[in-house]
Amino acid sequence: MSEEQKIEEKKPDAEILFPDQEVYGVKVRPWTFNQFVSILPDLLNIRKGLKENGIEIGELENLKDDDEGKILEFLVKLLPLIPATTIVAKTIKEEIEKVEEWEFDKTAGIFLVILIQNAGRIKNFFGLGLRAMQAVRKAG
Questions:
Q1: C-alpha–C-alpha distance, residues 99 and 89, integer Å
Q2: Do residues 82 and 46 lie in contact, with contact meaning Cβ atoms separated by under 8 Å?
């Protein structure tokens, strides 16, 4: 491998630290701490809605690929609880009204990328992160 090829393959530090992904012409990057804090009330509402509807997060992890019926049943209960357009708007710093006017494929595609990019943060929030916050509340 030539020196020129090695230089071309090396990514800038900013690209490694903030891996942007362009979806439908919109640049999406993982949440910053402040974005996560702004989305936290939405996550709390999702958590509350899940509890009120008797949905356990573990249900999703236990589903297998061949459980199509169960997956669809889970999605029917889960999707109305997720404020996708709000999360998309806060993540990409766009007006909610504009995001609400987008076509389904664009909003869904961007929302899925956001979920994938932030899966670790979301999973930690619903698991260990939530227990840690409860412990802080009890201590205070």
A1: 6
A2: yes
Instruction: Give the model confidence (pLDDT) of 10-65 as tens digits.
Output: 554 544 555 788 999 999 999 998 999 899 888 888 888 888 888 776 666 676 76
User: Facing residues of 23 across strands?
Assistant: 26
Q: What is the pTM of this model?
A: 0.67
87 φ, ψ (degrees, to nearest 5): -65, -40
Does residue 24 come out as left (phi exceeding 0), alpha (psi in the -120 to 50 range) or beta?
A: left
Question: What are the boundaries of each domain within the chain?
Answer: 41-82, 83-123
Spell out the residues 6+ positions from residue 89 whose beta carbon is closer than 8 angstroms to its own. 95, 96, 98, 99
d(C-alpha 32, C-alpha 28), whole Å: 12
Whether 61 contacts 84, CB under 8 Å: no
Chain mean position to CA 108: 12
- CA-to-CA separations, 92 to 10, 22, 79, 89, 95, in angstroms, rounded: 27, 11, 21, 5, 9
